[in-house]
Each structure stands twice: as structure tokens, then as C-alpha cells.
Amino acid sequence: MNARATTRPGGRSARVQQSVHQAVRDLEAELGRDALTVPLIAARAGVTPSTVYRRWGDLRELLSDVAVERLRPDTPPADHGSLRADLRAWAVQFAEEMSSTAGRTYIRDALLGDPEQGNAARCSDYAAEQLKVLGVRAAGRGEAVPDVERLLDVLVAPLMYRILFRPSDLSAAYTDPLVAAAVDHPEPSAPLPKS
Fold first, then answer.
1. How far is residue 50 CA from its own chain's centroid?
2. What does pTM read for this prediction?
3. Number of H helices, E strands in the chain
4. Per-residue DSSP letter, 74
5. Read out DSSP for 10-62?
6. At 60, which helix (H) or strand (E)?
7. For the chain, which residues make up each domain, given as ranges?
8. Domain 72-184 has CATH 1.10.357.10
């Protein structure tokens, strides 16, 4: 994705982004993904195709930008009274949402249209922010809290691998042992050997 599309624009630029993103969502729902073209999206959004090309580069980069916005959590994670309960609920919800057909499509779109991996970092930041909220909440209750990087390595990384490559049985039976490994052994992962 080009640098202009990764910023959160204001004014006219924000309105263009919003209308183009909405056009993508509407047209995908109405016509299906295979029917999407930049001219069709631009017409629906009320902008010229050159505006879309200038801002996003091509259809893949536009779909990537839309996917990243769709992957952004809408609300903070729910409070279930303890870090373990919060992480269990968060992990199950994350697995359900991301392993759905739509979720996997958004993940792939976010990565495919992003040769510089800025969208991957944004998506990772979304998960990290959610985990930080849970950690701050747990620390406020006096609980020991694993480092966010530990949670990403022990909980999120295996989930993402399963979601993308082996998307079967991502129920609590799979996520609970990951949560237990992160909470019961909060020490950081061993550093990778130097090559």
C-alpha cells in the first residue's frame, strides 16, 4: 500500500477514503468480489478512477486497505474478571472471527496488497493493543501479567498459523492450552539463535 493510504486522513481525503471503502463493501456484497474493478468502485464512490489509482495504486492495494480497516477491532475486549478469563474469551472470539471465510479473506487481502508489510504491522498492532488493554486491566486487579510480546508469540502467532494454514477446530479446546501456556509461564520466550 502506498504511504498516503496508510495515514488516517482528515477533511476531503477522509471523505474520499470513506466513500471508496463503502463502495468496495457495497459492491462486493451486491456483485461479488470477482466483479470489482477500480472504475466500478470509483463510479460508486463518486470519484474518478485516477483518484483511486493515485491514492491506492491498484485494486489489490485498495482491497488491502479496506481489509485492514475491517480487521480493526470495534470495541475493547470484554472484562470477565481475571486475566485468564479475559484471554480465554478474547482468544475464542479472535479465532472465530479470523477463521471465518470473511476473516481469512481480509487477512489475505491485507497481506497481498502490501508489499512493504505495513498492513501486517498495523494488524499486529491491533492485536497488541487489545492484549495491552487486558494486561492493564489485570495489573489493576493485582494480577501478574505476561509481556505483550510473550502473548503475541504464545497465543496469537499459533492462532494465526492455524487460521491461515490449518483452519480446523479453533475452539476453546485449542485456544485454552495456549492461554494457559502464556499465563502459567509468563517468562519471555527464549531468544532466537543468531545465524
1. 28
2. 0.80
3. 11, 0
4. S
5. -HHHHHHHHHHHHHHHHHHHHH-GGG--HHHHHHHHTS-HHHHHHHHSSHHHH
6. helix 59-71
7. 3-57, 72-184
8. yes
Q: Which residues of 25-50 are buried (b: 16+ CB within 10 A; e: fewer)?
A: eebbeeeeeeebebebbbebbebeee
Amino acid 163 reads I
Cβ-in-10-Å burial (0-12, 13-18, 19+) of 126 comes to middle
For residue 128, what is its C-alpha cell? Answer: 497488541
Distance CA 95, CA 61 (A): 25
Q: How far apart are alpha carbons 110 and 95 in whole angstroms?
A: 17
Q: What is the pLDDT of residues 36-88, one digit of tens each?
A: 999 999 999 999 999 999 999 999 999 999 999 888 898 999 999 999 999 99
Q: Is 9 helix (H, G, I), strand (E, B) or coil?
A: coil
Distance CA 13, CA 51 (A): 10
CB atoms within 10 A of CB 156: 22
Distance of CA 114 to the CA centre of its chain: 14
Cell of 25: 463493501
Q: The CATH number of 3-57 is which of 3.40.30.10, 3.40.50.2000, 3.30.450.40, 1.10.10.60? A: 1.10.10.60
Q: Tell me, what amino acid is at 120? A: A
What does the alpha-carbon distance between residue 79 and residue 56 come to, in Å, rounded to a whole number? 38
